[in-house]
Write a structure and sequence with these properties.
Belongs to the bacterial solute-binding protein 1 family. The chain is an alpha/beta fold. 42% of the residues lie in helices and 13% in strands. The chain folds into two domains: 205 residues, D-Maltodextrin-Binding Protein, domain 2 (3-Layer(aba) Sandwich), CATH 3.40.190; 206 residues, D-Maltodextrin-Binding Protein, domain 2 (3-Layer(aba) Sandwich), CATH 3.40.190. It is built from 20 helices and ten strands. Strands 1, 2, 3, 6, 7, 8, 9 and 10 form an eight-stranded mixed beta sheet that branches. A two-stranded antiparallel ribbon has the order 4-5. Strand 4 and strand 5 form a beta hairpin. Helix 2 packs antiparallel against helix 15 and helix 10 crosses helix 19. The longest helix is centred in the N-terminal third of the chain and has 18 residues. The protein is globular. The two termini are 24 Å apart. The N terminus is likely disordered.
Length: 445
């Protein structure tokens, strides 16, 4: 989930690049344009509907970049036609994926194929819920760092699909108005936010949220670690209850207590920061390149006013941030063979390369050699590619297992800070409850 410290080279590249999740809905795909040449072993394309050889249920997360899901629908329709398989393609907002999956798994009716955030996928590794995929990993030339984030203590159950690096977005024009330097530390972030905060004119220093999801959990996790505390150590022991962690959650709560965020931020989800940034309502957010892609397509004037920077340093350390998206297949699914067939179809280099271009940096390639393509050699895109390097295992430095995923999925950190902000809970008591909730998961035998 979280990446190691960004290099100075990347920092400069991101700062001066003039160029840098999630809508929702579900759809049954309709035939679209060909994305790649027809494979040699493709099935007849003129089969009648009643001659379809089985059905594939494919759940995908809906990305903030709408072109992604549209392009996937075209590919799925082509797959259905060429391989004579019925496909039900459903795009689900990331915030809803876990709930829908839990219900489907409990009912014994999971999708045949899931493409989701790594921290969601890993939660289903235990209890023999997923299909082991070593055979598929051997068929493609995956980057070693891609396989690192896909690995779990229990074994190989995820096929990496793309990396998603995160950065800090800052309104350059607001800095210039106040003669401020770009923020490099968390203290800088707060001081800049205070200086540019203008609630009377519906402009706020920060676009942070507390409604749960990878964005708010990632921000608070990063803040705690940069203050000097690892939430769980390398042996899986919960180590979060420290004076440094207490200072960190109080610091995060202060963003909301001091009205540096818009109304609604306390319950905002992963799409919240995208929306308030693109509305021109806030001065600083942390996000993937989904914001960059949206600005590049629809708001070039806002992009001109934007600085793209690494995550800030804390009093003790600095960490970058990023995640991965992966395929998984469920052991109780009805058509695993069709799912495996689609994964191979997905990684056709021509199609896969075009799909990543649609994501405009939101998705970095997981296959070796793709960094040499014209798209990734462009300076603004190369910076995003560099930001995908050195992704550390989920929950770092804790063991990369389903527990690391579950603590994120349950929004423990976000709920803890919410209690301080909304319920006026004593911060130490909130931290005690965070520790207790972490131990419920990590101390399971």
């Amino acid at each position: 989930m979280y990446k190691k410290t960004l290099t100075v080279t990347l920092m400069l590249g991101l700062m001066f690049a003039t160029a840098c999740s999630s809508g929702g809905g579900s759809a049954t795909p309709a035939p679209g344009k060909d994305a790649t040449a027809k494979p040699a072993d493709a099935k007849p394309a003129d089969a009648k509907p009643d001659q379809k050889k089985g059905k594939l249920v494919f759940w995908d997360k809906s990305e903030y970049v709408k072109d992604y899901n549209d392009f996937q629908k075209e590919r799925v329709a082509q797959f259905s036609k060429e391989f004579n398989i019925d496909v039900e393609y459903v795009a689900i907002p990331p915030a809803d994926v876990k709930t829908k999956l839990l219900a489907a798994v409990e009912a014994g009716n999971p999708p045949d194929l899931l493409l989701a955030d790594d921290f969601v996928a890993k939660q289903f590794v235990g209890n023999n819920q997923l299909v082991e995929i070593t055979d598929i990993l051997k068929q493609f030339d995956f980057r070693e760092d891609s396989k690192t984030y896909a690995y779990a203590m229990e074994g190989w159950y995820e096929i990496p699909a793309y990396h998603s690096p995160n950065v800090m977005y800052v309104r350059k024009d607001k800095l210039e108005e106040k003669n401020l330097q770009p923020p490099k530390t968390w203290d800088d972030v707060k001081n800049v936010a205070k200086a540019i905060n203008d609630p009377k004119n519906n402009f706020y220093g920060l676009g942070f949220q507390l409604g749960g999801g990878g964005d708010s959990e990632g921000r608070i996790n990063n803040l705690i670690r940069t203050f000097g505390t690892d939430l769980v150590n390398k042996d899986g022991k919960v180590t979060i209850n420290t004076p440094e962690a207490l200072a960190a959650i109080k610091y995060d709560a202060s963003f909301f207590q001091e009205n540096l965020v818009p109304q609604g931020a306390v319950t905002g989800d992963d799409a919240y920061n995208n929306n308030v940034w693109l509305a021109g309502q806030v001065g600083i957010v942390f996000n993937s390149s989904s914001i960059y892609a949206a600005m590049k397509k629809d708001k070039p004037e806002l992009l001109e006013k934007t600085l793209i920077l690494p995550w800030p340093a804390g009093p003790k350390r600095q960490f970058g941030s990023g995640g991965g998206t992966a395929f998984v297949m469920f052991s109780k699914a009805k058509n695993t063979e069709a799912a495996k067939q689609y994964i191979k179809y997905f990684f056709d280099k021509d199609y896969y390369g075009k799909l990543l271009e649609k994501l405009n940096g939101l998705g970095g390639p997981v296959l070796n050699g793709m960094e040499n393509t014209p798209f990734w050699q462009k300076p603004e895109n190369k910076a995003w590619f560099d930001a995908t390097r050195n992704i550390v295992p989920l929950g770092d430095p804790a063991p990369p297992d389903a527990r690391a995923s579950q603590v994120i999925s349950e929004n423990i950190l976000s709920k803890g800070v919410q209690k301080i902000v909304v319920n006026k809970m004593d911060p130490q008591k909130a931290l005690d409850e965070i520790e207790k909730d972490y131990k419920k998961i990590y101390d399971k035998k």
